[in-house]
Amino acid sequence: MSNQNDVKFADFPLSETIHQSLDQAGFERPLPIQAACIPPALEGKDVIGLAQTGTGKTAAFAIPIIQRLANKMELGALVLAPTRELAAQITAAFNELGKSSGLRVATIVGGVPMEQDFAALRSWPNVLVATPGRLNDHIENGRLLLDEIEVLVVDEADRMHDMGFIPQIHRIIAALPRKRQTMMFTATMADDVERIARKNMRDPVRIQIGITAPAHRAKQEIFELAEDAKRPLLLKLLRKSTGRVLVFARTKRGVDSLTRIVNARRLKAAKIHGDLEQGHRDESLANFRSGHCPILIATDIAARGLDVSGIEHVINYDFPHNAEDYVHRIGRTARVEASGLATSFATPLDRRFVNDVRKLIGDKLPKPTRLESYSVASTKVTPEKKPKGRYRSGRRSGSQRRAATKSG
Ligand code: ADP
Questions:
Q1: What does the pLDDT read at residue 111?
Q2: What is the spatial distance between Cα 79 and Cα 69, in angstroms, rounded to a whole number?
């Protein structure tokens, strides 16, 4: 493993055009997952990569596919991704690294007009990047023949599982030739994911890239506080921040209401969650990427795999109920070489979830700092000088007290 640092792209039998594209992309050396994955993938072996997003796995499977399919006419590779955003990012990576090798990539995702798919399919792609639902529509209606597929990639298999896509994936695999190369990437090996591997892969090479890698790089802090103290603290942190901030809320409604509140304070926030139209999601991402909206408020599923560089601060407004989501979320601020800050809010009811994360990543998780209600008042989160009882020195309002009693 230690000499993986010395591996160079020049060590791999890749075409000159791929080397040029790697140079142009500024990829000087392979990242660990690439160093481990590219050689067996080039030999046509099946590969299981256990790695988080942000570790460079897209190029780890894209480079061998480009090498194999460049200048072929047939649709030879299918890449399945759980979300539209991830599919778009994978397509962009294929284009960046494969265009000069003559690779043609098409994307098939839900939430866009069918005509767009027909145009994509007419472009004679040799790589198709798709989300499972829409792809199945086309397969079932006989609009898409996948009998020339040589390589299947299932990206973020664990998230596919969480999103209920496993039956769809089985159906898609049934439409593929049996003789093919299969690569699967996942952050964790859930039973269902293991089952897909056992049933559909031949003697796969297993590659594991440290599960907590992102956690090493981001500085982390946790505040334990009451539910009603979270909003004032969030506004305070957002006012202080200078760079891009990604805020996670648990529910779509939570994202909607936080976005309204933040924008009402003249802090520019965009939002992203699964119920928004694709156009709205694209616009939010574009505004966040360009810095027009330096704050993005998101649910886990929508934010999964987002590749936005320069996120300085991730705020877990709602503490994740799933320990792996914690690692994914804070990984957003420490992609590849950058490092950042991850702040988490946890109410006393979240203690067991904090413990779950500690079990997963150990002492890298700091001890929570308790913020009593008076310390929230002392944070002076009141630009609107007289909040007319809204924050009442950190004491709860009647409705908040009622809500607390209900949930307790
Ligand atoms: P993942 O697929 O694991 O989420 P990506 O493949 O999107 O990760 O890689 C994350 C970021 O790292 C992207 O911005 C990508 O362009 C960049 N990257 C990937 N490989 C390299 C490399 N060898 N050198 C430098 N940057 C890289």
A1: 87
A2: 14
The Å distance, Cα 58 to ligand 1 centre, comes to 7
The hierarchical CATH code for the domain 4-209 is 3.40.50.300
How close is the Cα of 93 to the center of ligand 1, in Å? 9
Query: Measuring from each residue's beta carbon to the nearest atom of ligand 1, which residues come in under 6 Å?
Result: 27, 30-31, 34, 53-59, 305, 307, 335-336
Domain boundaries, the chain: 4-209, 218-380
Check for a shared fold between 4-209 and 218-380: yes
Protein residue with its CA nearest to atom 12 in ligand 1 = 56
Architecture of domain 218-380: 3-Layer(aba) Sandwich (3.40)
Q: Which residues pair with 47 in a beta bridge?
A: 183, 205
Weakly modelled stretches of the chain, pLDDT under 70: 1-5, 210-217, 302-305, 307, 334-339, 373-408
Task: Give the global pTM.
Answer: 0.64
